[in-house]
């Protein structure tokens, strides 16, 4: 009787936790690594693209999240890049630390100083609200752009710059005309300053767009875009179908011969301490998408969303890898595959970047 009760308890516990007796190796083995041939195509006018069959691995996105990651996984193989954010109106969080009103700290220079042989994944905040994009297009923030240009040249490493990230998201309220004018002005200023180590990323929300505009309405042109980016949050909870909007972005990228990066991603429903169900529900579809769609760079956000004061994400949860040892171990199993590029002395050469 006691044995039966114990077995019943263990069975129910395994079902509840989602462990099912699986090891991290078995969890990682659930990922399909096949690439759909239709997503293998030649890229044109793009910088710092990994070789065929490779994907650049990036982690982020705040000083606090990166510190948590390093404290828990500092002995693991380091990612090939790190993320940070800044806003077009002010040169803050770039050359030195800046704690913003969300409660998080940004510091691009820290990423350069502490993580050699990596890239910088830089997000430039620019919205339609308060006429930020309109002012950018009129030259109000030219001084800030030039200051960033000087900083970028000095760091002497590849930078992937997301100009007005999630340009089509309803939360950013960006009118296409204002966005395109601002985007082009920013790129033109960098080029006038002879900045050669920046790849320009056109980053879509990959969900229902602002005012139902077509994604093409925001496109600044092939000469101004090196990469196309997408955000992956709720998308992966639906299995391998990430939605028609996401499909449309990938089709647009192929049409314009641009590589695709997952510029922001996280299982926003949280990573629980004693439940690995998130692996099956989010991580497996996520990695399937990376392999199947031939995603060339991927940025994972290691963050406790409950600690940040950001409007619209009140229901997001703590989704740090450190919350669950088995999920974290499976993550490192999955990203240890030869597809993923990590920090190394040969990384820049693999990306086609010549250090000066």
TrEMBL record:
GO BP of this protein: substituted mannan metabolic process
Keywords of the record, alphabetical order, are: Glycosidase, Hydrolase, Signal
Q: Name one Pfam family in it.
A: Glyco_hydro_26
* Record keyword Signal present: yes
SUPFAM superfamilies documented for this protein: (Trans)glycosidases
The UniProt entry, under InterPro entries, shows: GH (IPR017853), GH26_dom (IPR022790), Glyco_hydro_26 (IPR000805)
**Superkingdom classification of source:** Bacteria
Look up the signal peptide feature and give its range: 1-21
* GO function terms (MF aspect): mannan endo-1,4-beta-mannosidase activity
Q: Where is the GH26 domain?
A: 35-329
Residue ranges of coiled coil: none
The active site annotation covers: 166, 264
Q: Which PANTHER family does the record match to this protein?
A: GH26 DOMAIN-CONTAINING PROTEIN-RELATED (PTHR40079:SF4), MANNAN ENDO-1,4-BETA-MANNOSIDASE E-RELATED (PTHR40079)
Similarity field: Belongs to the glycosyl hydrolase 26 family.
This one is known as: GH26 domain-containing protein
Q: Which organism is it from?
A: Aureicoccus marinus
Q: What is the lineage of its organism?
A: Bacteria, Pseudomonadati, Bacteroidota, Flavobacteriia, Flavobacteriales
